[in-house]
Amino acid sequence: MDTTGEKNISVLGDDPGLLKAAMISQQDEISQLTWLCDSMEKLLSLHNQEQIQEGFLLLVEEITNYRHCVLYLFGDAPHQYSIQACRGITAEEVQTKYQLEADILRWVIKENRWTVIPGEGNGNEDFWVSILPLVSAGKEIGFLLLNTCPDQRIFTQGNLRRLTYIASYVALALENGRLYQNIVNTKNYLKDIIENINEGILTLGIDGNISLLNRNVTALLGLASADIVGQSCQHCLSPELKRAFDIIIGQTFKQGYVMDYRLDHTPQEGQSIPLAINCSLLRDEKGVPNGVIITLRDLTTSLELQRFRELDAMKDEFISNVSHELRTPLGIITSYIEALLERVKPEDLATQRKFLSIANQACDRITGLVNNLLDLSQIESGRFFLDLKRVNLKDIAVSVVKSLELCQGEVEVQLALAQDLPYILADEEKIYQAILNIASNALKYSPVGRTVLIKVFKDNNMVKLMVHDEGVGIPEDELPYVFEKFYRSSSSAAGFQGSGLGLPIAKHIVEAHQGTIEVESTLGKGSIFTISLPFPDGNERGGSYGGE
Amino acid sequence: MDRTTCQEMLKIVLEVIQDIPTLPNVVYHLTRLMENPATSALQVSEVISRDQALTAKVLKLVNSAYYGFPRKINTVSQAVVILGYNNIRNLVFTTSVFDVVVKPNGSEPLFNKVKFWEHSLGCAASAKIITKKMGFKKTEETFIAGLLHDLGKIVLYHFLEGESAEVLMVAAERDLLLIEAEQEVLGINHTYAGKLLADKWNLPRDITAAISFHHNPLPAGDNFRLCSIIHLADILSRCLNIGSGGDNKIPLLNERSWEVLNLSWDKMKHILSEVETEMEKAQAFINLLEA
Ligand SMILES: [Fe+2]
Ligand SMILES: [Fe+2]
């Protein structure tokens, strides 16, 4: 038993003595409370659970001088608790030394008061076990188990008051720390999502100031810095973007949203990003608009995919065209040879000859088609080489016309050649093919009785070859596409055959010679294709037209 | 009532109080001891142990369903470390007060004694729940204050008797609050009579304040909040028809008190639903006291 207690009891009858002792203790209590208030203030300002625990256990040690203590915190499930911290004892030792009885623990926590647990060494034994509940605003946070000396000076009413007071503040601090951590976690999680989403996200306040943006926005809009939160959106954007954003935001305030606004944005020279911009209103909890959220999607990949899909469709169509092209001449060959074998008399040489020549023409068509296909595959795979020699474009034009005579039939081909043309450096075979492709194309689209005029002349520093037909012509909106691979004019639907390969091959050949190919056309009147090829310096001889 | 009769009445009341026995010595010793924060559990238990009857009663109460501790408490010093100093102090007070007021010379008061204590208990239970719902820890203090709030009525209708019979008649005939009839007939009401007895007994200051100001908390000073809780609890107990304090009227709730308590109607609904369970526990407490 402690001696102060003995003295107090012995003077119980002596009122002045007791009063004096009480007054002194009250004064001590007041000074201690002031000190305690400061400590509590410090604890409450902490957000880190470890620091709060540390401060708490130090305070309790000062008051109770415990031998050891164990801090338990409740989990999310009711009545589930686990050891959070130990002082002077290990967690394993705690398991063997203390078996807390659930009903007593419940009772102590409900009463929310520092309580000595009887039977656990209470009384004659050499230690006391007590429990200090941690409850904040009705929420049970945990409890502290204390092992102290059985000293009467420890469990005084002053200490009971103080510890209960500390415990409720620590419970509050721990709960605040937990909530703070939750907020931080949620914030990080959202930040993670916003930063890693595929799209650019940008939010603006009602004042037009940027309130949030992610990495993708800085990349897509080509912003110099991501550190522009709080700045006016208008100051950070290029004039081009500013205009687009004005339209988008204006529309959003009018109709609530903007869907897939298309913009080809140029963040820097030579770089173009096709963007799809969505925008919708942000509202506060009362439903009043307080800003807009803008999402930016880079369409480069999806546009490429779309082009691949289109190419795929074109190839399918091409294969069916080519099959058709091959089947027609093959059908001719088959039927004429059948006739030769079975119906034409061996002595009827004239008919035999006629049939064979038809079969021969059909063979030529197949050969031409296969050659075109081979050229195309060469061009596509990059195995395309020129064998450059000095040649005269006039000579090539003449041999093209000669080979066309075989099949020109009802269309007349006229040739206008300038004299003294400068030679060019060219792969004769390939230029021949380019001109043949264009000229036969002209013949194909010319009605019976019309003329195809081929002119060769010098113009400035170019030698030009012009193919002028009086055919059906090409609609204006199709002109930009006539040199594209697999393109077939809408007129080809009207009974004209063709693989859609002749013109692109011609264009490729001419451009490989540093030349150009152009087309003009008037629907119903005809088209003019012009090939221009450069000639080397020093062989300029000038020239005038002359027939051949 | 004129001035002279009023003063005579006061004199009579004072004489009556003079004759009411004092609380046992142990209560005063305990009060002194409790004023010292350094007081230990052992000191408290030694003082109580000097009174064998009190010791027996305390052990019976601490083991009652009212406190609901799941194990048997064998010694007073255990009771102190388990229930805490305030619980033990309140328990000793209430026991002692009941010993004095419930069985004076075996006579019966003018009103229904059972209903009176039921009313007091209803007020005590309500006060405890209100305190809990407001988030304060001093639930035991408000419970005891609620239990003793109408102590003055014991003085007027049990010890004074003759002169008070008229008060009850007037109140019943004209449907007045008892405090209004007391003022009219006697010139002194039960809050004042109660305060005089509390002073004589040296009751804790907060309990004395609750006795004095439970009908009008405004002048209660530091104890305004406690007195407002008792004021509201008194009204709740009447609204819930728990027992009777001698009249059947419901007093007006003080506006300022309502403001300070800052209870939403939602909270009030919870309070009302919890009072009943608390009443059952409290009844066990009273039964033990009366035994
Ligand atoms: Fe009253
Ligand atoms: Fe009352």
What do you see in this structure?
The complex is a heterodimer of chains A (about 550) and B (about 290). Chain A is an alpha+beta fold. Chain A has three domains: about 15-185, Beta-Lactamase; about 200-300, Beta-Lactamase (2-Layer Sandwich), CATH 3.30.450; about 385-548, Histidine kinase-like ATPase, C-terminal domain (Heat Shock Protein 90). Chain A is built from 14 helices and 18 strands. Chain A has a six-stranded mixed beta sheet with strand order 16-17-15-14-12-18. The radius of gyration of chain A is 48 Å and the shape is elongated. The termini of chain A are far apart. Mean pLDDT of chain A is about 80; it is low at about 1-15 and about 540-548. Chain B has about 290 residues and is mostly helical. Chain B has a single domain, classed as Orthogonal Bundle (Hypothetical protein af1432), CATH 1.10.3210. Chain B is about 70% helix and about 0% strand. Chain B contains 16 helices and no strands. Chain B has helices at about 5-20, 25-35, 40-50, 50-60, 75-85, 85-100, 115-135, 140-150, 150-160, 165-175, 180-185, 190-200, 205-215, 225-240, 255-260, 265-290. The longest helix of chain B is centred in the C-terminal third of the chain and has 26 residues, at about 265-290. Chain B is globular and about 55 Å long. Classes of the chains: A alpha+beta (about 550), B mainly alpha (about 290). The interface between A and B is large, with 43 and 29 residues. One fe (ii) ion binds near residues 150, 190, 214, 215 and 245 of chain B. One fe (ii) ion binds near residues 149, 150 and 245 of chain B.
